Amino acid sequence: MSFAAKTKEKTRKKTMQYDYSKNKEEHPDPIKAEIKGTLPDWLQGTLLRNGPGMFSVGDTTYSHWFDGMALMHSFTFKNGDVTYRSKYLRGDTYKANTEAKRIVISEMGTMAYPDPCKNILTKVITFLNHTIPDFTDNCGNNIIRYGDDYYATSETNYIRKIDPVTLETQDKVDYLKYLAVNLVTSHPHYDKAGNTYNMGTSIAEKGKTKYVVFKVPPSAQDSSKATPALKNLEVICTMPCRSLLSPSYYHSFGMTDNYIIFIEQPFKLDILKMATAYLRGVNWASCLKFHPEENTLIHVIDRKTGKEVASKFFTGAMVVYHHVNAYEEDDHVVVDVIAYDDNSLYNMFYLSSLQEDSEEKRKSYSKPKCKRFVLPLQTDKAEVGENLVRLKFTTANAVKEKDGKLLCEPEVLCEGVELPRINYDFNGRKYRYVYWTHAEMSAVATKIMKFDIETKKTIEWTEENCYPSEPVFIGNPNAIEEDDGVILTAVISLEAQKPDFMLVLDARSFTEIARANVDAELHMDMHGHFIPQRS
Predict the structure, then answer these.
(1) CA-wise closest residue to 109 among 157, 154, 159, 175
(2) Distance between CA atoms of residues 122 and 115, nearest Å
(3) Radius of gyration of the chain (CA)
(4) Burial of 392 (0-12, 13-18, 19+ CB in 10 A)
(5) What is the distance between the alpha carbons of residues 435 and 437, in angstroms, rounded to a whole number?
(6) What total of structural domains would you count in the chain?
(7) Cα angle, residue 49 at apex, residues 231 and 43 outer, rounded to 5°
(8) Which of 16, 150, 241, 501 is exposed most, by the fewest CB atoms within 10 A?
(9) Which sign does the torsion angle of CA 287, 292, 295, 296 carry?
(10) What is the pTM of this model?
(11) Domain containing residue 363
């Protein structure tokens, strides 16, 4: 039995549970996986994934699972073989914490104090000097591409360039050097020309708080000087926040061929409370508040002009983390999202909640629903009270109110699903299939599913005592059909004698065609990015 298998046996044999708070071991040298089945000849490239891996330093422990220090890992597919490696992101946060042998850099759910002996006067001085706090560079949420470069990212103004082959940590990049944004999403969009689109929040810049959508070109104009592509970014549009000191939290946005879709939800970050959090001894997450009495605004912005369309759309209070897709049809914009009734999802991932899981606690959390909103663009001649949705394939509606705004009621496509992925060639276009995770009564997925939007039929993959990750679709280069490709998902097995593995499913039938057993203990991650091998 290998060292990794022996370690796994010790940690999982008795409990048959995943230990969320355990520090995970990195494997910087490539490990060749054992292949069961046959991989497609055309599957060539590297799946990079990112997520928290270290939860305690010395005698200190993070409070929230999202706060754990970033551990990247990769699965490289080449000529029928798979190699695995993992490495911690060596950012300033990692270095400061490990050198101090305690957590000294604050994260969203964990407020840390560099010197435990600091008195109240020192805290006051720190508060006065940092109205907008200097955020962490613990970029443990996703991997994104700008130009020819790849970055580990979370949602702060810092991202970290990485080597996608060795996973070595490289330059620290501050968005603020290129654009006045304090928070930026970790879910950008890419077009076929190689541009990257993203959006962020500019807090109290010149007395205004606004949302900014920007585009980053495929590569720097002066490639000889290895200039970051971010240097040549272009602002597409800005939108004023409806509250100067309480901008909406958002994790992603939608994009079609002609429009950007931004959901300004009543889940807000209180900037004044955030500025005083250190002084008050509370974490920044406590400064996020859901306002169920307020509506959700849906902004539709013309990508060419940077201006919002004339129609104003709103719906009831909800919280959205992930957009599924959006597209245009017959003067309508169709927007599919994963929505919650409140913000309880974040609370599910406090380590104390994960470790003390109970049926009663699970029932108290909002269940995710895939909701379809349909936004009609031609509204000038509509009557008050009229439903303007003309599309026949959906029950979603948009009714004109007396003030001219449209109240949008969604169609619920599916329930209990998260981490949606699609064939990205259909991003911004009408599509049929979505792949996502499903949790029975927990925050953690036990199944992955393929959902047919037209027929509402579902196919699932599940295996006893296994936790699959976000399912990633990789298309066959010669595909004709939308679902011609494979699904990749990293699977953690709770059984001591059963290895963790990379699962490869045929996307059409959703049946297993191969698995790559890894002689290492995989960690639960968040999101990832596939880099195809260049021919």
Answers:
(1) 154
(2) 10
(3) 23
(4) exposed
(5) 7
(6) 1
(7) 100
(8) 16
(9) positive
(10) 0.93
(11) 3-532
